[in-house]
Amino acid sequence: MSRLLTKHCQPCEGSVQPFTREEAQTLLNQEIQEWCLNETATEINRAYKFKNYYETMAFVNGIAWIAHQEDHHPNLEISYCRCLVRYCTHAINGLSENDFICAARVDALLLPPQGIAVCKP
């Protein structure tokens, strides 16, 4: 489990410096490997694929709940069976720990519940 899941977003209305490319890349490598850093190191993103529209929208509703709970909101691009999630802390025009906390929480939406074995056919 990512250590980021034990944290919650903190307000940072310009009082926090954005992560450097190196800091962001370290967190990506250690905590949320499947996310990508954009060219300017100001955003992380990940595309998720689903079987159908219903699954896509259920996932999007989960993201909306996380955004409400953490008061940190992603940019979303939604289609029939795909959702692109992009995080950036707009108040600092770059990445903060809040972006990584929320990304870890979004990833956790797709994890099987703990204590239940998942069998592959």
Automatic annotation (TrEMBL):
InterPro entries found in the cross-reference section: PCD_sf, Pterin_deHydtase
A Pfam family it matches: Pterin_4a
Any GO BP: tetrahydrobiopterin biosynthetic process
Top EC class, one word: lyase
Keywords, alphabetical: Lyase
Entry-linked CDD domains: PCD_DCoH_subfamily_a
UniProt-recorded Gene Ontology molecular function terms: 4-alpha-hydroxytetrahydrobiopterin dehydratase activity
Identification of the protein by name: Putative pterin-4-alpha-carbinolamine dehydratase
